[in-house]
Amino acid sequence: MKSEFRHGWDKLSGIHEFNVSTSSVISDIDVRGSRQFTGCAVVQVQQPKGRKPHFAVKNSSDVTVFEVGARQTSAYSALSRLLGDPLESFSWEEERSYAGDGTTFLRCRAVVGSDPKAVTGPSIPRIVLDTETTGLHPQFDEILQLSIIDGDGNILWNKLYHPSFKSSWPEAQRIHHIKPSDVRNKDFIEDDLVQIQDILNRAEQICAFNAEYDMAFLGEIGLRVDTSKIVDTMRVYARKYHGRDFIKLTQAAKECGYRYNPHDALEDCKATLAVQNKADGKRTAGSRRLMDAAAKAIPSTESRPKTQANVRNVAMLQPMRSTTSHRRKNKGIPWQAHAALFAFLLLCALTGLSMIFDQDHSNPLWAEVVTELIFIGLTVWEWDNMQKKRKQRIAEKREQGQDAPGGE
């Protein structure tokens, strides 16, 4: 697993790590060396003159073993998210600074106890989730869209979010087409953590395509998940059918006979479900439940803005048919046949011209002239057919999402 994903992934299990300068830590004990404590809790320590409060770790005897102020941004941010949570353990190791100036820093590790929140609803056998983000780095980028469906394709969650720090994301926008104006008046995802956590708690299995990526983003915002429930659909499918770990979602969905509009979190969820079902050995190409789910709108969820780039007829979500009769009905003569016919007509036209202007035919018969004109006309007509066929092929590829940039 990539280190940038490991940080958020560890947080899913309640493991929070951060570094802080040894000299900036306030403690009732000696902070040098390596120390470990159990039965701790994070508390807020108010400061005089309206200054930001400190965050401290206290042991079961109410002794302050670790305290930092707002200037230690990494440690401060990590502890602020653990406020009120019981810690199974809190530890650190002192290491020398990489700058070589003789200073040291503490590599800290806080392990949160089991999530005390009880499940508030019936269990869900399977959920599928996907995100659209401002970039590819969970520690620095933010979630713009989160979608969750169940194993039958029913929408459980689908909302756009206003990022807390990012104001623009041009590279990511080029792929998923979510503009800053689309999320300007939306909620912050932190406001919905309780509801999202409840869905994750109720799920018996959590599927995601390239799960390390999406789950790292969820971990970074403080969500908790039993990682044994997570299934990486990409790796399951790619290993089973291609003997490798990576495959794009657009390619896998195409192989499963599922057509969709990629780079929308909700549509990617439905495509992931189709791929996971095939990997499970389920026949889902004719499933009406998944197709009907594409047209449903849950009142409590929020749809992505309707733009020319993502509005598609629901019929496009129908699986592709590959029978010969369907090809004849919708595509007509294959382009190879048009090319062969054009080459034949062009050869006839050139042969006719050479015969008309041959030295032995200085006075060509009118029949030869008329025949030649017919061949020239047919050649031009067939050239026009070839161009139309070429444009049709390009349009079909765009419709299937084969030319979408940065396909997953």
UniProtKB/TrEMBL annotation:
Keywords tagged on the record: Exonuclease, Hydrolase, Membrane, Nuclease, Transmembrane, Transmembrane helix
SMART domains the UniProt entry points to: EXOIII
Membrane-traversing stretches: 337-357, 363-383
Exonuclease domain residues: 125-285
Keyword 4Fe-4S appears in the UniProt entry: no
InterPro entries referenced in this protein's UniProt entry, alphabetically: Ribonucl_H, RNaseH-like_sf, RNaseH_sf
SUPFAM superfamilies on file: Ribonuclease H-like
Name this polypeptide is given: DNA polymerase III subunit epsilon
